[in-house]
Amino acid sequence: ARPSLAAGEEPVARRRPASAPSHAAPTAAAKRLVRVDAGAPDERLAAERVLVERARSALARSRASDALAALREHRRRFRDGQLAEEREALTVVALASQGESEQARATAARFRKAYPRSLLLPAVSAALEAGQPGQVGDRERPKHLP
Length: 146
Prior knowledge:
This protein is mainly alpha-helical and about 150 residues long. Helices cover about 55% and strands about 0% of the residues.
């Protein structure tokens, strides 16, 4: 039986056991979020966010090919999603960090046309500059990540 709460008292969230690592595999609920394609708006946004965060995490670990895979999946499933702008900016970052300068520049040009007032424009420009041959990038925490 659950203990009853006093008036005005809020339930305390259950804490993860100390033995559970913080990098544990995704829960079943998180896996279901990734499979959502046409659910409620909140579920759809959560599914988008999972893919964008997967890409961001891969970039932070200098794994551009993994980032691009997550971004391609996002583009396929959520072409006009709420996070499409961030997806496209991250795509430029990933392409530039992988040395795909031509493709990064073309993607950046499409980004600038589609989002001329984006707050991510400086990050897109920085990614292109950092991806130029002969420049040494910050491998620990790329400063151009949006």
